[in-house]
Write a structure and sequence with these properties.
Blueprint (H helix, E strand, L loop, with lengths): L10 E14 L2 E14 L3 E6 L5 H8 L7 E6 L2 E2 L5 H11 E4 L11 H10 L5 H14 L15 H13 L5 E5 L7 H16 L3 E5 L3 H7 L2 E6 L2 E5 L8
Parallel strand pairs: 3-8, 3-9, 6-7, 7-8
Antiparallel strand pairs: 1-2, 1-4, 4-5, 9-10
Helix pairs in contact: 3-4, 3-5, 5-6
Bound molecules: adenosine-5'-triphosphate and magnesium ion (MG).
Length: about 240
């Protein structure tokens, strides 16, 4: 800014030396083995890698669902590793949208209630919760499925409800772990398209996927993990080019 120098990129999340080791029956599994990752606001990052390479372990740490063995996770809300359980719960509720391979919907509640519940912890009033939830579900083509329960929806529709639940709070960071793993080609494309559109409006997405074609098509940056390490990064972590 001053003297023409470019402003510091604002990282939504920045890890340094991130490690997560598991100990099982006397052996050590280095699920994450020193990951330095910077994700800038507005990026769409895809992560690929063999089964067991540490992708879910990384996403769980970024979501504040797990604690690293060592290393740091800096977010715009502060250092995750030093947050109290209450602060972490708040971070997850307000800042993180999570989408998994298994849709994780509440079976006995309607699509609408499943989405509304994401706003419950945020202190949004009932009418506003309902209005925002209907708006997002309708945008995802589920306007005529609001009162269906998950069992009465197709797999693709269930995943769209899960995406709506993550989008409705407009999180700072969307973490999607194999969100298309249980879907056919058309439904997979539709889900990634929704994430891509949200990203085009400024949202930040980290997507774990085995679908290299979809990743290449929609994300600006492709990361590859192997044995707990980041072995390639097509992007620059927010540097302007
Ligand atoms: N709770 C745990 N206890 C012990 N080992 C674990 C635990 N969670 C993960 N691991 C191990 O850590 C490694 C990384 O697992 P992770 O789930 O992150 O892989 P992944 O890249 O997501 O694989 P996939 O593509 O199959 O989902 C694996 O070897 C796994 O067995
Ligand atoms: Mg996984």
């Amino acid at each position: 800014m001053i003297n023409g120098s470019s402003p510091e990129p604002e990282y939504i999340v920045e890890t340094a030396g991130l490690k997560r080791y598991f100990h099982l029956g006397g052996s050590e599994v280095r699920a994450l083995d020193g990951v330095d990752l910077r994700v800038a606001r507005g990026e769409f990052v895809s992560i690929v890698g063999a089964s067991g390479s540490g992708k879910s372990t990384l996403l769980n740490l970024l979501a504040g669902l797990d604690h690293p063995t060592s290393g740091s996770i800096q977010t715009t809300d502060g250092q995750l590793t030093t947050m109290s359980p209450g602060q972490l719960a708040r971070y997850r509720a307000f800042e993180i949208g999570l989408i998994f391979q298994s849709f994780n919907l509440i079976a006995h509640q309607t699509a609408l209630i499943n989405v509304e519940m994401a706003l419950l912890f945020l202190g949004v009033a009932k009418k506003e919760r309902q209005r925002r939830s209907i708006e997002v579900l309708t945008r995802l083509g589920l306007g005529d499925r609001l009162h269906h329960r998950p069992d009465d929806l197709s797999g693709g529709e269930q995943q769209r409800v899960a995406v709506a639940r993550a989008l409705v709070k407009n999180p700072k960071l969307m973490l999607a772990d194999e969100p298309t793993g249980n879907l056919d080609k058309d439904n997979s494309r539709a889900i990634i398209q929704v994430l891509a559109e949200w990203n085009q409006q400024g949202g930040t997405v980290i997507l774990v996927t085995h679908n290299l074609d979809l990743a290449r098509q929609h994300s600006q940056r492709l990361l590859q993990m192997d044995f707990g390490k980041m072995v390639s990064d097509s992007g620059t972590g927010g540097q302007q080019t």
